[in-house]
Amino acid sequence: MAQKAEAPAGGEHEIEVRIAGQLARLRAERGWSLDELAERTGISRASLSRLERAELSPTAAILGRLCGVYGWTLSRLMAEAEARPPSLVLASEQAQWKDPESGYRRRIVSPPAPGLRGELVEVHMPVGASVTFDTSPVAGLEHHLWMLEGSLTVEVERAVFRLRAGDCLRYLLAGPIHFQGTGKREARYLVAIVQP
C-alpha cells in the first residue's frame, strides 16, 4: 500500500476532522472492530485508528475503499460530514478536499442533504497525476463526466476513454475505475452522480 501523508493541523482542515468522525460513526453503527474493518478493506488497523482520530490524511484510494465497504459515495461522505444541510452553499463555503498522494482536488458543488441521490462534484487533476478506485462504493452508480478544461484518460472496466474539453462520458460504475491527467495543463471536470 502507498505511504500515507500525516494529517495537517489547523482550522483549514476541519473537513478532514469531520470526515474522520463520520468514518468512526459508520464503523460503530455496523458494530465492527478496527480489526474487522482492516480485514474488509486491506488497510492496517493502526492506519484506520489514526484516520478515525484525524491524525492521518486519507488518500482518495483509501477513502474509496472505506466508502466501498460502507456502501457510500465519497461525495456523500463529505456532504454528510458537514455541520448543517443548507439548500444553498456559496462557492466559498463548498467542501473541498485534496488527496495528499496525487494532488487530486475535489469540491462538492451540491448542497449536502441526508439521503442524497444526485450529486455534482468538481475535480481538478494535475498533469500526470492518477487516481484509482478499486471498487464502486454503490453498485450501478451512474456518472456523467463533463470535461471543462485540459484532457483526461479514464479507464472503466478495461474500456479506455480519452477526453478533452467539452467531451462528456456517461458510464455505470460497478467495478474499478482509473483517472489519469494527460496533456500539458491541469484537467478540470464535473461529475454528476446519480444513485440507483
Helix content: 25-40%
**What is the succession of H and E elements?**
EHHHEHHEEEEEEEEEE
Figure out the total of helices.
5
The largest beta-sheet arranges its strands as: 3-4-5-12-7-10
Structural key phrases:
single chain, 196 residues, alpha+beta, 6-stranded antiparallel sheet, 4-stranded antiparallel sheet, 26% helix, globular
Q: Topology of this structure?
A:
Elements: E1 5-6, H1 14-30, H2 34-41, H3 45-52, E2 56-57, H4 60-70, H5 74-80, E3 96-98, E4 105-108, E5 118-125, E6 130-133, E7 141-149, E8 151-156, E9 159-164, E10 168-173, E11 177-182, E12 187-194
Helix pairs in contact: 2-3
What report would you give on this structure?
The model is unreliable at 1-12 (pLDDT under 50). The two termini are 31 Å apart. This protein has helices at residues 14-30, 34-41, 45-52, 60-70, 74-80, and strands spanning 5-6, 56-57, 96-98, 105-108, 118-125, 130-133, 141-149, 151-156, 159-164, 168-173, 177-182, 187-194. It has 196 residues and is of the alpha+beta class. A six-stranded antiparallel beta sheet has the order 3-4-5-12-7-10, covered by helices on one side. 26% of the residues lie in helices and 33% in strands.
Quick summary:
With 196 residues, this protein is α+β, with helices and mostly antiparallel strands. The protein contains 5 helices and 12 strands.
